[in-house]
Write a structure and sequence with these properties.
Length: 253
């Protein structure tokens, strides 16, 4: 299974899975980008995977569906009405011979789902977990996002994480403010700064790395608690209160 990014808009990635001349795309906000690549590589589009309803993830679905005989998978409760095969927690689908399990991850939106393949060690998580960050909470609550990230954090540490925006550098610029003493974070930030200066993609990431550098997976860390307690107005914030404060700080940074 070959997975590659198709850049779209200013910072989106449409992930394309290719196997034996067949293709699946994840969150195709732009149909033209997908069609151009399919034509160039002579690929047949079999499936579209939707993680949530935002237009930059669904804007190309209708046009692609009209042009190709493909399945459209997505959340069972999505306000986006282009979903044909509706998925909920623990459902399993077969994509190019590999099983993907559905994980419901509300927070960024209420309908958000992720697609996880244990055999491929692969997670497509949309706008829930980013490298060095997490999605802005538009529809859900901090509690929901915290719980969603907790679900993802118990996957195999070697899981490759395919999120859908090139936000890594800006996320790390913020992360280092709340945990400046994290040597892993400092090292990773330097690496990403160099990559981005050469216009190289920063993704995919992996869960082991994220648990070492991502403040939204590190609410238990004392340095982060100490650095956000004044903002949270709590002397000894819980992990959830710490997460909530970090998310609010990021929103206002």
């Amino acid at each position: 299974m070959n997975i590659l990014p198709l850049p779209a808009f200013t910072d989106n990635y449409i992930w394309l899975i290719e196997e034996n001349g067949k293709a699946t795309v994840v969150d195709p906000g732009d149909a033209e980008v997908v069609n151009n690549y399919l034509k160039e590589k002579n690929l047949e589009l079999e499936n579209i995977l939707v993680t949530h309803h935002h237009f930059d993830h669904t804007g190309g679905v209708e046009q692609l569906k009209e042009s190709h005989k493909c399945n459209v998978y997505g959340p069972h409760d999505s306000p986006f009405n282009g979903v044909e095969i509706k998925l909920k927690e623990n459902d399993e689908i077969l994509i190019h011979g590999s099983t993907f399990k559905i994980i419901e991850v509300p927070g960024h939106t209420l309908d958000h789902i992720a697609y996880y393949s244990k055999e491929q060690n692969t997670l497509f998580c949309g706008d829930t977990l980013f490298s060095g960050g997490c999605g802005r909470i538009f529809e859900g609550t901090p509690d929901q996002m915290y719980e969603s990230l907790s679900k993802l954090s118990v996957l195999d540490l070697s899981t490759k994480i395919y999120c859908t925006h090139e936000y890594t550098q800006s996320n790390l610029n913020f992360a280092i403010k709340v945990e400046p003493g994290n040597d892993n974070l400092v090292e990773y930030k330097n690496k990403i700064d160099e990559k981005r200066s050469n216009n190289e993609i920063s993704l995919p990431t992996n869960l082991k790395l994220e648990k070492n550098i991502n403040p939204f997976l590190r609410s238990h860390v004392e340095e982060i608690k100490e650095n956000v307690k004044d903002f949270a107005k709590i002397n000894h914030p819980s992990d959830l209160e710490t997460f909530t404060a970090v998310r609010s700080l990021k929103d206002n940074s």
